[in-house]
Predict the structure.
Amino acid sequence: MPGAPGHVVPAAPKRCAFVKDSINLPVVSYYEIGTQFTANHAHGSLMGVYGMLAMGFFMFVARYFIPHDKAGDRAMGLSFWSLNIGLAWMVFLNLFPIGYLQLGDSLNNSYWHARRLEFFRQPVVRFFEWMRLPGDMLFIIGGILPVVYLAIRMFLNRNRYIELPAGTAVDEFTEPRG
């Protein structure tokens, strides 16, 4: 019973202000959310983490389905490097510079000023927007097309081990049922 002798009122849980504010800095968020920094973070984290993880899993599975040859190795290597370089190109040579310019404009003029159409019509911003094209082309042509090629080869080779050649050594988990 509160107020009774010997009763201790539990203290309210305290939050560590430093940790809370270092995760979500309100001032930075105000000037940064909705700018190209948001798209930079989204593209880099989504494709950089989950997309590359999915591509790694795809390549791992492709090793099982596709016969080991130079064409498959070349397609996997080309896809790996093109996806990574294309993503880095987009993040560091397009979205980050425009986000930096927007952050400077929002700090100097105001947030609304950095979001106006006139900001995006500046020659330097238009230059960085066009700088995205080579990275996107590398990402699509060098990164995605080899994956499509590998997926087609996986589909065509999906039933290649229905019957094993005579005398083929098999592991316990791959023994044919019969």
